[in-house]
Amino acid sequence: MSELLVRLEWFKAVVLPHEAAVRARLLRICPAGFDVENLVAESLARAYQVQDFARVTAGRAYLLAIARNLLIDTLRRETIVSLDFVADLDVLRSDEPAAERQLQARDELRWLQALVERLPPQPRRVFLLRRVHDLSLATIAGQMGLSVSTVEKHLAKALRLVAQARAEREDHEFGRNAPQELRPAGDRRTGGRLRR
Fold it and tell me: Taking the complete model, does pTM exceed 0.70, yes or no?
């Protein structure tokens, strides 16, 4: 068998099966508008051109490493880079399931942050003071000049809206009831704010 055919068989068996996984990971970490398809194609081309291809047996890790290096080269040419984006680059180093869980956790945190930013002002402030800063309801009431019962109502409203948005998101992701838009994006009638 010629070297060209051996290389092609190696590429089809070791590297090509991991194209979709690398694409999925890049789609999760790259900013909107980034040309992921071009990056995947360039990664595959570079993997195919490796000199000592027979030594490469871990195709997924190899392809992820190439994609990561190409992404770093692209970032070096950019003048402004998101800190979240740089943090996500580390996920491309690993071929472990933990890396996928780490990406999912970051996605969930970003989604929650966007949702909280769209809450009405008072419930948002109470939610952040209670859940992020871990202040007592009495302390929050004192800071905001409200009664404890009013603070409780604002917190209950925020929690209800977050739970509702999460349920709608899960329904949408699993194809149930497929809403036209997710609650975190806001209700058009309220100028992007959640209300109930």
Answer: no
